[in-house]
Amino acid sequence: MNLKQLSELLDLSQTTISRALNGYPEVSERTRFKVVEAARKHGYKPNSNARKLATGRAGSIGYVLPVGRNVDLDPHFVEFLSGMGEHALSREVDLSLTPAPYEKESEAYRRIAASRSVDGVYLSSMRNDEQRIALVRGLGLPFLAHGRALAPADGYACVDIDNEGAFHAATRLLLQLGHKRLAYLNGDTDYAFAVHRLNGVTRAMSEYGLAAESLRHHSAAMNEENGYRLAMMMFRDSDPATRPTGVLSASMFTTLGIVRALNHLGLKMPDDVSVITHDDVFPFLKPESFSVPLTTTRSSIRAAGARICERLVDIITGVESEPVQEIWPVELIVRASTGPAPAEGKRAHGRAAEPAE
Amino acid sequence: MNLKQLSELLDLSQTTISRALNGYPEVSERTRFKVVEAARKHGYKPNSNARKLATGRAGSIGYVLPVGRNVDLDPHFVEFLSGMGEHALSREVDLSLTPAPYEKESEAYRRIAASRSVDGVYLSSMRNDEQRIALVRGLGLPFLAHGRALAPADGYACVDIDNEGAFHAATRLLLQLGHKRLAYLNGDTDYAFAVHRLNGVTRAMSEYGLAAESLRHHSAAMNEENGYRLAMMMFRDSDPATRPTGVLSASMFTTLGIVRALNHLGLKMPDDVSVITHDDVFPFLKPESFSVPLTTTRSSIRAAGARICERLVDIITGVESEPVQEIWPVELIVRASTGPAPAEGKRAHGRAAEPAE
């Protein structure tokens, strides 16, 4: 049944029917109800769907949501969604989340492509050796990556931040301040961002003549618990002459744990330990909101969400035809958690340094 | 074009075509590509869609995602999504997020109902006077509420936690411990959960003969910054004989700020101030992970997400026909942040108490 037929059936103008089905407030609830019922009964697809059918589009962009008993979505995802949602609103598209455990991911992309329930997908949490790029390409699914895989490194559209540059700059600052014993509490190095960051750290170290092997590097899920556990391991009963004086941290949640460990051990920022943290800009927990405000590498994940939605829609509609690798610079914001390395002979704070107390 | 025709056209068995389109690994990538291309070209809708068309279902549940420059999604939403996704996976449904600013929310629900892009919706962040229930009911959209509005209070399906009971129990514990001057850093009281909790606090106070007016109550967004700001306001330059000794907090992020303020002012938990916090169970920041582990009211928001998905699918498929208001009890877990009220004559910690130091 088309609009004209429905209009005749209900004895209402085509304009009224369109308005009723598209949510305009001029139509009374009674009329709207009548129209919605009739449209459903007679299988009439209203304008938005008709337009979508005409253009061949679903009006939705897709994401395969990792799920599983041991899978924790990163809290920063809410900010990413906020950014994406703001832009999606302006382009009148929905976001469709298809849950899938890691081992059934390919199947999920295949189902999405086959059912044409979305017009394109974005990929995130890019891995070192990324299988999904070839997969979605083979399926003919328009896509954009949030982040970059280590391999394949070219030929696909992405938005990423300069993770290597950010951690290179952060490490260089610590080195300029005289720190020689560094630690990095990294995210999971199965993911490319963590490898990029590690490369930035070791590149800066090598520029200052320090061997990569001297870095205390730990790869773990980025939460408070791991931050605490790893910092305790590193600083408890440690010798002030050999323990790290400069610590890099992959996430604000990790740093909450590092700070708890330092407080517990009576070690001070920045006198005993300088700390630099990556900050995705998270309104619930800000780097200024630490007893000692944190020096950070900063890039808004909300802005990335908006940009990814914008470009994905451009890719779907053919506005963007050549794949662009868009890499955002990251700011290094200095606050009170960084300072000169403690002088070797200087009396250090902390229980470990003063066993006799 | 139907499956039989496509099978003849490609000279492939119907089984192979179904497998190719439904992501089974037995099919080679080359064959899959050929099938997907042909299906697209000839407008063949594969099984999952055919099934959905046959049952009249979209295979998707919807949520209107609040967006706007000043809108921050709560970080606990990632845990809710994880729970929802785990169950959605087992029922083979997707989650569809339709972004909308507050003032265009009704329009979004109307569009969802008209386009039949989802089979049902869940509502969250229920307000005191909730307009959405009548709206989605009028639109004939199956729905389930996460939380309960204050009005209308009956006749719709929901999953909620016993917010009033939780904060009644928390307050009663503080009163049993001898605390008489209480404060509550609440969430935004435009939302029903915050009013339910406040009712729990004042009901317990009245049972102990304390006037509701004596409660120091603040309603604000639940983040670290507000926790710090409000706690500083309450405890800085305050008289130890009149300042609160028992503090209730609506969220772990708020409590991070409270703890920072107490540390800053040299006030100790629980000697100077007892603190009880609501905990949605958040793997990135646990109540045990505070220098002084937190006493909490606890309920898993991830479990709520799974249950809401389960019941919404049951409502859509007609398994659940009568609207059930399912209210979950909340546990009160005692840790080190609560203790007896400081004796009036006892020397108190903190700068405010010792201006001469």
UniProtKB/TrEMBL annotation, chains A, B:
Residue stretches making up the HTH lacI-type domain: 1-55
Record carries keyword GTP-binding: no
Protein name according to UniProt: Substrate-binding domain-containing protein
Domain of life: Bacteria
Keyword match Membrane: no
CDD domains with a match to the protein in the record: HTH_LacI, PBP1_AglR-like
Annotated PANTHER family: HTH-TYPE TRANSCRIPTIONAL REGULATOR GALS, LACI-RELATED TRANSCRIPTIONAL REPRESSOR
Keywords linked to the UniProt accession: DNA-binding, Transcription, Transcription regulation
Organism: Hoeflea alexandrii
